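Example 3.2
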Amino acid sequence: MEIRLSRQNNWNFQRLNIFNIQQTGFPRLNEQDLREIWGGSYGPKHVQGYLTEMRTQISKGRQYQGLRQFHVSCEGQLWTWEGVSFDQDNPPARWHGNGWDGARIIKANILSKHTSNTTHTAVVCFVPEGKICANQTFQYSNDNLNRIKMWVCGPRNRAGCKPGARTVCPCLHCFSLIAILGLYSHSPLLQGTTHKRTIIVDPGNGLPAQHFFI
């Protein structure tokens, strides 16, 4: 609701690169932090698949440079992915909590791993670095984790993310956004890939052996 109002009234609504830590202000997390948010290793393991889907879409949108360069692009580091942010400095409408820390809301479209041409709208609310975080939502084990306030995933329809509104732990789309903001933007060398090189022939260059990939 607050993001929709920001669109209508132009309230601090900004486009940003979710891999740019200066733009996001998201606190640095480590791999143990991600396991704590998820409650195990399943979520952190599957984030690599979402990163690979993002790389593949970017690679498909570039001018074709041959299969070798396509594979390299699908396996390289991600440096940019568009999102939007909104600073919620005042308590939202119908807020009945004990206190409100000035929060930032970041929204990004995360590609579906299971349905082609489908994206999910992942939203994360947190207290950015440099602002006082006096109220804890989840009682995590360290201050950086406790800057995370809430998440939600949409759209809310039959084709949307069914567990997207749960609060015990995030869905994989929101979790991937948290992992990008907190870990992979701060430490890009930790980005992995699930891209697999299959046996392919590049018909534009004949059939020499160097155009076969495994």
